[in-house]
Write a structure and sequence with these properties.
508 residues, two-stranded antiparallel ribbon, 8% strand, 60s Ribosomal Protein L30, Chain: A, 2-methylcitrate dehydratase PrpD, 2 domains, four-stranded mixed beta sheet, alpha+beta
């Protein structure tokens, strides 16, 4: 049974016992040693494979090179054995917070791993790098890692279901700091008091504005969740040393809700598992078949379908206009409702194009496919016929698609919309899609074989065949892994690959 925890702002003179605070309720979920169910374990394995896939595809990209160089500039801390970094040899370790940083950037760079959308946005797979890094550092086994990851996903999803951050231009990683801290607390078997302090500190240090995802989007987009993961590791360390944190962090008169979110009169109901209830929230999440913002996934699939049925639609000479009728979020975040001129700029960064549904729909309509590198190449974005088609595409909010986007009924929750294409001869083509093909309710839901295939495709250019097989064999035995085997839960790049990638010098 799920229990809705009512959260509101309290004046300083009002009594709010610690046990009634949201951070404490989160800590109670983290300390509940309920068994992780088999289908949840299977999905955790899928998501570790998914993270490794997109990290492999990112190994030589500039943000990853910089983050990896930063990590290896820091020696292993004295409290454990350290943690691995994607791409590096398994005996090359760094301190866990820096491994969380480097691996978090690698996972997030291509915007190509799992997602959950409700009151706010999230990529719950961002919990994996910090929790895994700590597991390797302290010598946790596979069972402990599974429990920690189940908590991280549970808290992330529960917060995203209830508390909207983006409405107040707060970046969604503000839900990640607390969830990762809670997951680490479960992994380590910490008590509720320690986890409570860590959750509070992790939230306090990870509230930042959404400018990282607005306008000309910078490389910080990939670093933001890695920073939250790093802060979660440091918050746990600090709490374990007996240090306290601002509280009540959510409900306080000068707390996050009162001054960063809905204000002093705000109230939320956060759904949390009751004591003894299994943590199953990961099963509500979904991964990406395409390397693009999740709200673009279904639109890519629809464009791919239209390309096969009506290839002439890719020629701008045939098109008067293309209007995507969609949800509020899609229209205002990645659509023309964002009022970002950069979303129509052929010289925009990859990060910006990834958040431009007019660009994405144009390319997918012309190519009938989507590629994590080729579809963003500067020469692809600058192609004359693409630019001409792109400029004819706009979005409009549709109340029904907005309602379905926010629906708590999984059977009708939708992230797509209806396209109306007006041709130059006056005829119209109308089609719609509710969810991406890879979604659990989509045309081709992702299963283990799809995750493995995604890993093989993305890893083949950068990992040797034997390394691909080693990793896949290891990760699929996750619950039975020894501490020594958990320490090998990483990927090793082909010889010379990382050395060929420029490692920029910095302060460290």
């Amino acid at each position: 049974m799920t229990v809705n925890h009512h959260v509101r702002v309290y004046r300083s003179e009002e009594d709010l016992p610690r046990e009634n605070q949201l951070a404490w309720k989160i800590a109670e979920v983290a300390t509940d040693s309920v068994e992780v169910e088999a289908d949840v374990v299977d999905m955790i394995i899928n998501r570790i494979i998914d993270n490794a896939s997109v990290a492999a595809a990112s190994l030589t990209r500039a943000p990853i090179n910089a983050a990896r160089a930063q990590a290896f500039a820091h020696p292993v801390s004295t409290g454990g054995k350290g943690a691995t970094v994607f791409g590096a040899a398994l005996d090359e370790h760094t301190s866990p917070e820096w491994a969380a940083w480097a691996n978090g950037v690698a996972v997030r760079e291509l915007d190509y791993h799992d997602t959950f959308l409700a009151a706010d946005y999230s990529h719950p797979g961002d919990n994996i790098p910090p929790i895994l890094a700590v597991a390797q550092h302290v010598g946790s086994d596979g069972q402990a890692l599974v429990r920690g990851l189940a908590t991280g996903y549970e808290i992330q999803v529960d917060l995203v279901k209830a508390i909207c951050l983006h409405k107040h231009k707060i970046d969604h990683v503000a839900h990640l700091g607390p969830s990762a801290a809670a997951g680490i607390g479960t992994l380590l078997g910490l008590d509720a008091e320690t986890i409570y302090q860590a959750v509070s500190q992790a939230l306090h240090t990870t509230t930042a504005t959404r400018q990282s995802r607005k306008g000309e989007i910078s490389t910080w987009k990939a670093h933001a969740p890695a920073f939250a993961g790093k802060m979660a590791v440091e918050a746990v360390d600090r709490a374990m040393r007996g240090q306290t944190s601002p509280s009540p962090i959510y409900e306080g008169e000068d707390g996050v809700i009162a001054w960063m979110l809905d204000g002093p009169d705000a109230a939320y109901d956060v759904p949390l598992p009751a004591a003894g209830e299994a943590k199953r929230a990961i099963l509500d999440t979904y991964t990406k078949e395409h390397s693009a913002e999740y709200q673009a996934q279904a639109w890519i699939d629809l464009a791919r379908k239209l390309h096969g049925e009506r290839p002439e639609l890719g020629d701008p000479a045939n098109i008067e206009s293309i209007v995507l009728h969609t949800s509020h979020h899609t229209h205002y975040v990645i659509g023309s409702g964002a009022n970002d001129p950069q979303k129509y700029d052929p010289t925009a960064s990859r990060e910006t194009l990834d958040h431009s549904i007019p660009y994405i729909f144009a390319v997918a309509l012309q190519d009938g496919s989507w590629h994590h590198v080729d579809s963003y190449a500067p020469e692809r974005a600058a192609r004359e016929d693409t630019v001409a088609l792109w400029q004819k595409i706009s979005t409009l909010e549709d109340a029904e698609w907005t309602r379905r986007y926010h629906s708590l009924d999984i059977s009708e929750k939708a992230f797509g919309g209806r396209v109306e294409i007006t041709l130059t001869d006056g005829t119209k083509v109308v089609d719609e899609i509710a969810v991406a093909d890879a979604h659990p309710l989509g045309a081709r839901p992702f299963a283990r074989e799809n995750y493995i295939n995604k890993f093989r495709v993305l890893a083949e250019p950068v990992l040797e065949a034997a390394e691909i097989e080693r990793f896949l064999e290891l990760v699929q035995r996750l619950p039975e892994l020894t501490a020594a085997e958990v320490a090998e839960l990483s990927i090793i790049a082909k010889p010379g690959l990382l050395a060929s990638a420029p490692a920029p010098a910095g302060l460290f």
